[in-house]
Amino acid sequence: MAKLKITDNARQNGNEGWLLEQCCDSPLDASTRSEIIQDLHIIGGKRLKDVVAENPNILLFPPVLGGLKDGVEDLHICSYSEAYDRLYTGNLMGFVGVNNTQVSIASRFASGKEDYFLHYMLIKVFCPNIFDLKHDTSKDAAFDFLLYLFPHYFNEAMKQGVFKMYRTFERNDSKVNGTIDISRHIRSNIPFKGTIAYRTRELSFDNPITQLIRHTIEYLKTSPIGRSLLTGKDTQNNVRIINDNTSSYCANDRRRIIASNRKELHHPYFTKYTVLQRLCISILQHEELKYGSDKDKIHGILFDGAWLWEEYLNTLFKPLGMTHAENKTGKNPIYLLEDNHYERFPDFYLTKKMVIDAKYKHLRYVNIARDDIHQIISYLHVLEAKGTYLAYPVNNNEKSDIRNIGCLKGLGGEVGLIGLKIPQNASCLSDFQNAINKEEEIVINKLSLLICKQ
């Protein structure tokens, strides 16, 4: 099994990217090298939208592709150039594998053996209460990522109510309410006992979907990280509801329940259960399905780096009263014209005060992209804001800070940068948390002062 560890945004350039020897965990002989290259051509060379559609065992977050004009569906997970003998990546992070090749894509803003930055963002966005208990990452980071996602998607699905579906029950009593089963009646009720065997079809909360969720919950309880994930108030209440409605639960039925969920759920009302169903199956079958269980089939879990950075920043900016415009869901847009035409989605804004756009990229005063600066200036003007900023991660060679680039001509307004320093070389996840919390505090305090002044 060949394991490759690379970072996101290794660009398509002969002087960039990763050499195979540079990212492989062991020396490469000619045979292994040839196998890796063949597998990489299967992973790369296809649009992300097509890869996800053809491979049900690859999970993508956010689980939205197409129709948003954000270009995510056209990304490649990674690609290999034989001319330069280099491996290139885009804005996707996570784990992916095919046959005997595993590829781990870490954040380029992290360093060291473990990508604590990606772990931290996932925890902060999906399960912030996990830090109430001491824990650290396991040896299988891909599995940790699956667990981190469960509370969020579980609680989101439960907001639509407990999933219910029609099930056929075989009964044998005196209260006939269905189709009489003559053959079973003869076998069971002769001589006549006063009961009648019949079949009835009823809506039931105890069904393959809720059973799948129950099995996942019980599985999470077997590990320290899993138990800590179930400690949130909403999660505990929802776990209690699932337990109350799955009276037929039996631990030995896990394989049967997984088999009964092979067909992906498509329901006109319980829409949020589709992602939860796939997530539960991935958790329960992780050891069987991870990396290369089927010939030429792609497996793994991937995250859009730009989206995750934006959602992480939302956990910092929301308590300051900032509105988060979500282009993935269409929530909280602004409009460029007075008749509510040309909707746009600035990442964060306070009307008549401030606009912030999240950028998961390296930024410098001298090389801010033309489109980026034009975008935030447009937002500033439409919202009549006093200042507009680009929020981005920085490495150890810079400090967490908010600095102004200058004042706009014409209608005025400050343009600036918000840099959040990403700690490097942490010894464990808790050390990383302590270090980045200090950097977050610097940014939040300075941002609060700016808002008060405007």
Outline the structure in words.
The protein is of the alpha+beta class and 454 residues long. Helix content is 37%, strand content 21%. The strands form 5 sheets. Strands 12-15-16-17-19-18 form a 6-stranded mixed beta sheet, sandwiched between helices. A 5-stranded mixed beta sheet has the order 1-7-6-11-3, with helices on both faces. Helix 14 links the parallel strand 16 and strand 17. Helix 5 packs antiparallel against helix 11 and helix 7 packs across helix 10. The longest helix has 25 residues. It is globular and about 95 Å long. The termini are far apart. The model has no long low-confidence stretch (mean pLDDT 85).
Could you give a short description of this structure?
The protein is of the alpha+beta class.
Q: What labels would you give this structure?
A:
454 residues; alpha+beta; six-stranded mixed beta sheet; five-stranded mixed beta sheet
Largest sheet: 6 strands, mixed
Mean of pLDDT:
85
Low-confidence runs (pLDDT<50, min 5 residues)? none
The span between the termini is 57 Å
Q: Structural class, judged by helices and strands?
A: alpha+beta
Topology, please?
Elements: E1 2-7, E2 18-19, H1 20-23, H2 30-43, H3 48-54, E3 58-61, E4 78-81, E5 86-89, E6 92-98, E7 101-106, H4 116-126, H5 141-158, E8 165-173, E9 179-180, H6 182-189, E10 196-204, H7 208-220, H8 224-229, H9 233-244, H10 254-260, H11 273-284, H12 286-289, E11 298-304, H13 305-317, E12 323-324, E13 334-335, E14 343-344, E15 348-350, E16 354-358, H14 370-382, E17 387-394, E18 401-407, E19 414-421, H15 429-453
Parallel strand pairs: 1-7, 3-11, 16-17, 17-19
Antiparallel strand pairs: 2-5, 4-5, 6-7, 6-11, 8-10, 9-10, 12-15, 13-14, 15-16, 18-19
